[in-house]
C-alpha cells in the first residue's frame, strides 16, 4: 500500500479532523462526492465509538493511515486499548470492505473504497496528492460541524426528492394496476365466452363425427350388400351371353353376334366394378385381417412377372427386377401381391409406349417397392385426388382402357393395413412412380 497521510487521534475532538481529512483524501484520489461522504462518515463513526466510554473503557489513542493499494483507497485505524472490536458499529454500505483484528493491546480496523477507473493514478499522481494533503491545514471542529450540517441538509433534500419520486411512481403504478385489472376482467370475460363457444363447437364436432361414422358404416354396408346382390345376376348375364355365342348353339346373325359381344363386355365391366366395390367395402369395414408370414419377395415378383406379362402390349415392355437376397419381409403374401398387381395393371393401362418397371430395395428397417411407368403422368395437384374413391384423371388413359377409380384407393388401404404407406411422384408427360414403403418386420410387431 502506498501511504498518503497519517493522523494521530487522542480525543473525541480529533475525530472531526479525521472526518475532514478522510473527505479530502477521497476527493484527491477521484472518489465521487457521495463516496467521499460515506468514507468520512465511516471513519467518523469508528473514531467516535473508540473515544466514548458508553460500552466500556475507551481507547487511549488511535493512529489513522490513508493509502492506495491497487485500485482501492485503504484506511487503517490502529486503536490502543483492549476489547475495542465489540464496541465498533456496523458500517453497512458505507465502505466496500471492512475487516477488524482485535489483539490484546490494540484493535486494527481496515476499510476500503474502490477508486474509479477513470482516475488512472500513477506514482507521480500519488506523490502530488501526498504533497497537497500535507499542505492543507485542518479546519476547526466548528467548521467541520457546519460542513456536516450542509451534507445532512443535502442528504435530506435528496431523500425528499426521492420520496416525491416514489409517491409519483406509486400513483402511476396504482393507475396502471387499475388498468391491468380492468383489462384482466375484460379478457377473463372474453376467454370464458370463447371457452363456452369452444365447448359447444367440440360437442357439435363430436355429433358430426358420430354422424359421419354412421354414414360411413351405412355406405359400407350398402356397398357390400348391393355388390353381393349384383354379382349373381351379372354373372348370370355373362353366362347366358356365352351360351348364345357358343358354337353348339343356334348360329347368330352378324348383328346379333355384335350385340351379344357388347352384352358380354358390359357385363364383364360391371362384374369388375362389383368386385372392386366388394373389396373396398371389406377393407373399410375392417374385416380383412392380414395373415402374417415371412414372404419371399423374389417369389412374389416371379409370380407377378408371369401373370401380368400377358397384359403388356408390344409397344410396352414389362420389367420386373428381382431384389437382392435376402429378400424376406414379414407381410401377407396375398394382400401384398394384390397391391403390386394393381399397381402394375395401372401402369400398363396408362402407358402407350415405353416400359413399366417394378423393383425393390432395402431402406434401413423398411422395404421400398417401386412401380415406375413411362406413361402420361399426373399433375402435382392431383397426386392425392387419385387415391379418392371413384376419381379418375380426365382423359388420362391413352390405351383406351377403362377403370372404376377404386383400384388405387383400395391399394392404399391394403398398404396401410400392412403397416406401410403408398405414395406417388409424377409429372405430366414424364411418367409416374408409385412407392410402397413397408416395414421389413411387418406391421404386426413381429420380427
Automatic annotation (TrEMBL):
CDD domains noted in UniProt: HATPase_EvgS-ArcB-TorS-like, HisKA
UniProt GO molecular function: phosphorelay sensor kinase activity
Native source organism of the sequence: Asanoa ferruginea
Histidine kinase domain: residues covered: 225-442
Organism lineage string: Bacteria, Bacillati, Actinomycetota, Actinomycetes, Micromonosporales
Keywords: Coiled coil, Kinase, Phosphoprotein, Transferase, Two-component regulatory system
One Pfam family cited in the UniProt record for this chain: HATPase_c
GO cellular component, one term: plasma membrane
Protein EC: 2.7.13.3
Principal location: membrane
Catalytic activity: ATP + protein L-histidine = ADP + protein N-phospho-L-histidine
Record's keyword annotation contains Phosphoprotein: yes
InterPro entries: HATPase_C_sf, HATPase_dom, His_kinase_dom, HisK_dim/P_dom, HisK_dim/P_sf, Sensor_HK_Regulatory, Sig_transdc_His_kin-like_C
Broad EC category: transferase
Protein name: histidine kinase
Ranges in coiled-coil conformation: 142-176
Compartment annotation: Cell membrane
Amino acid at each position: 500500500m502506498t501511504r498518503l497521510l497519517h493522523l494521530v487521534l487522542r480525543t473525541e475532538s480529533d475525530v472531526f479532523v479525521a472526518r475532514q481529512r478522510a473527505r479530502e483524501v477521497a476527493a484527491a484520489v477521484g472518489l465521487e462526492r457521495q463516496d467521499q461522504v460515506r468514507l468520512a462518515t465511516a471513519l467518523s463513526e469508528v473514531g467516535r465509538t473508540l473515544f466514548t466510554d458508553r460500552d466500556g473503557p475507551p481507547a487511549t489513542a488511535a493512529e489513522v493511515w490513508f493509502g492506495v493499494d491497487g485500485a482501492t483507497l485503504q484506511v487503517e485505524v490502529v486503536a490502543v486499548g483492549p476489547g475495542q472490536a465489540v464496541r465498533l458499529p456496523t458500517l453497512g454500505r458505507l465502505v466496500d470492505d471492512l475487516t477488524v483484528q482485535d489483539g490484546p493491546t490494540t484493535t486494527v480496523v481496515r476499510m476500503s473504497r474502490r477508486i474509479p477507473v477513470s482516475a488512472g493514478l500513477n506514482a507521480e499522481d500519488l506523490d502530488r496528492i501526498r504533497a497537497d494533503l500535507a499542505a492543507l491545514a485542518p479546519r476547526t471542529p466548528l467548521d467541520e460541524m457546519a460542513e456536516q450540517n450542509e451534507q445532512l441538509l443535502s442528504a435530506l433534500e435528496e431523500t425528499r426528492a426521492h420520496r416525491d419520486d416514489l409517491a409519483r411512481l406509486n400513483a402511476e403504478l396504482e393507475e396502471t394496476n387499475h388498468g391491468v385489472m380492468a383489462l384482466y376482467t375484460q379478457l377473463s370475460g372474453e376467454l370464458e365466452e370463447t371457452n363456452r363457444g369452444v365447448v359447444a363447437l367440440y360437442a357439435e364436432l363430436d355429433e358430426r363425427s358420430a354422424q359421419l361414422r354412421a354414414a360411413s358404416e351405412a355406405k359400407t354396408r350398402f356397398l357390400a350388400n348391393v355388390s353381393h346382390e349384383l354379382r349373381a345376376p351379372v354373372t348370370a348375364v355373362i353366362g347366358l351371353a356365352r351360351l348364345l355365342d357358343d358354337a353348339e348353339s343356334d348360329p347368330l346373325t352378324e348383328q346379333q353376334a355384335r350385340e351379344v359381344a357388347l352384352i358380354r363386355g358390359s357385363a364383364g365391366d360391371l362384374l369388375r366394378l362389383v368386385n372392386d366395390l366388394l373389396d373396398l367395402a371389406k377393407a373399410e369395414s375392417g374385416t380383412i385381417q392380414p395373415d402374417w408370414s415371412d414372404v419371399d419377395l423374389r417369389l412374389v415378383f416371379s409370380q407377378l412377372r408371369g401373370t401380368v406379362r400377358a397384359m403388356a402390349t408390344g409397344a410396352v415392355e414389362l420389367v420386373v427386377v428381382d431384389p437382392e437376397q435376402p429378400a424376406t419381409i414379414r407381410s401377407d403374401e396375398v394382400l401384398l401381391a394384390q397391391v403390386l398387381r394393381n399397381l402394375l395393371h395401372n401402369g400398363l393401362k396408362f402407358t402407350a409406349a415405353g416400359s413399366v418397371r417394378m423393383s425393390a430395395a432395402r431402406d434401413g428397417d423398411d422395404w421400398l417397392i417401386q412401380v415406375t411407368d413411362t406413361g402420361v403422368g399426373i399433375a402435382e395437384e392431383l397426386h392425392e385426388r387419385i387415391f379418392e374413391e371413384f376419381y379418375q384423371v380426365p382423359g388420362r388413359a391413352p390405351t383406351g382402357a377403362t377403370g372404376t377409380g377404386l383400384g388405387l384407393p383400395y391399394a392404399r388401404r391394403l398398404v396401410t393395413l400392412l403397416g406401410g404407406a403408398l405414395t406417388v411422384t409424377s409429372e405430366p408427360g414424364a411418367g409416374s412412380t408409385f412407392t410402397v414403403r413397408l416395414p421389413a418386420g411387418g406391421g404386426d410387431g413381429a420380427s
